[in-house]
């Protein structure tokens, strides 16, 4: 079991932010997590990483039960790609150095690295089509290029679970589709980590995401196989707006009904 969340709730001050969440992710599954702003997605991610402790319920990640494990060690097996990380990185560093720093979970490189680590970084840069700009300063890259570098950086630590937290935010349609192609490629790579893709745009959900959790106002609205969850009927109720879903090239797209 990659993630096992049982009847989890979280209360901040006098308000319940998450209520009775149960969610299991098994080996070999990739999930999308769908919810509008304020639905509790970020809170749930923080909980999976052990940064927030549940008010009620139990959590196990990678077969490590919270309260009985060293969360600092557990986090080494969890990659989390978020746009918020960009503001903490050193923009003058090269893209390749940013990727290598993921091996040490540091902001910046302070030690000489081995040939093996250099080769691992080169392989990831090639996998994610970043080799062309690997020697450029990070702060000269486009938003889409930076996101690819962040994914490569997360993969340097060889995580067993990789969380992609709204990675397409701020991208134009071309950059978005290029990044989604990269994510599909990562999902099919040998020894690929389990993926959780967080979004509120259904059209970003790739065929590799076999399962979907829909989170609404801090509660599980629906979860299960993607094709059974993301239907016109369920999405109409989920968004409180008449929605029609259609499929094109194995992707789901929405229109207002």
Structure commentary:
Its main location: membrane. It comes from Pullulanibacillus pueri. It is found in: Cell membrane. This protein has 257 residues and is α/β, with parallel strands linked by helices. The chain has eight helices and twelve strands. The strands form three sheets. A six-stranded mixed β-sheet has the order 6-7-8-3-9-10, with helices on both faces. A four-stranded antiparallel β-sheet has the order 2-1-4-5, covered by helices on one side. Strands 11-12 form a two-stranded antiparallel sheet. The longest helix has 15 residues, at 173-187. The mean pLDDT is 91.
Write the layout of secondary structure elements.
Layout: E1 3-12, E2 15-25, E3 31-34, H1 41-48, E4 56-61, E5 64-65, H2 71-74, E6 78-82, H3 95-101, H4 115-127, H5 143-155, E7 161-165, H6 173-187, E8 194-199, E9 211-216, E10 219-225, H7 226-229, H8 232-239, E11 243-248, E12 251-256
Parallel strand pairs: 3-8, 3-9, 6-7, 7-8
Antiparallel strand pairs: 1-2, 1-4, 4-5, 9-10, 11-12
Helix pairs in contact: 3-5, 5-6
GO molecular function: ATP binding; ATP hydrolysis activity; transmembrane transporter activity
Domain ABC transporter: 3-242
Membrane topology: Peripheral membrane protein
The main sheet orders its strands as 6-7-8-3-9-10
**Broad structural category:** alpha/beta
Estimate the helix proportion, in percent: 25-40%
Radius of gyration: 19 Å
Averaged pLDDT, please?
A: 91
Order of helices and strands: EEEHEEHEHHHEHEEEHHEE
The tally of helices reads 8
Q: Beta-strand level of the residues, as a percent range?
A: 25-35%
What composes the largest sheet?
Answer: 6 strands, mixed
Described by the principal axes of the CA atoms, the overall outline is globular
Ranges with pLDDT <50 over ≥5 residues?
none
The CA-CA distance between the termini, in Å, is: 39 Å
DSSP strand count: 12
